[in-house]
Amino acid sequence: MAKKAKKRSYSKGAAKKVGRAMKKRKSGTLKSGRSGKKVKSKKQAIAIGLSEARKKGAKVPKKRSKKRAKKS
Questions:
Q1: Residues 12-54: pLDDT tens digits?
Q2: Out of 15, 47, 49, 68, which residue is the most buried by the measure of CB atoms under 10 Å away?
């Protein structure tokens, strides 16, 4: 049996936005939202790129919900 083709979870537009954000981070010009501080971490740069893509209407999966801490 042939494997089922997997759908693309992120659109090409979303990938471009993330790529741009990563380039800006590397050059030192990417800044965070309200504070306007320089972004140094890769994770934060990716998050900024994805949020920009969401605003433009690109295909991006929903944000993950934070799991509640278990009570001991």
A1: 999 999 999 999 999 999 999 889 999 999 999 999 999 999 9
A2: 49
Sketch the domain layout of the chain as residue ranges.
32-59
Cβ–Cβ under 8 Å, residues 25 and 49: no
Residue showing tokens 């501080």: 37
* CA-to-CA dists, residue 11 to 1, 20, 69, angstroms: 28, 15, 33
0.90 exceeded by the pTM? no
Which residues, 6+ apart, have CB-to-CB distance to 59 below 8 Å? 8, 9, 10, 11, 13, 14
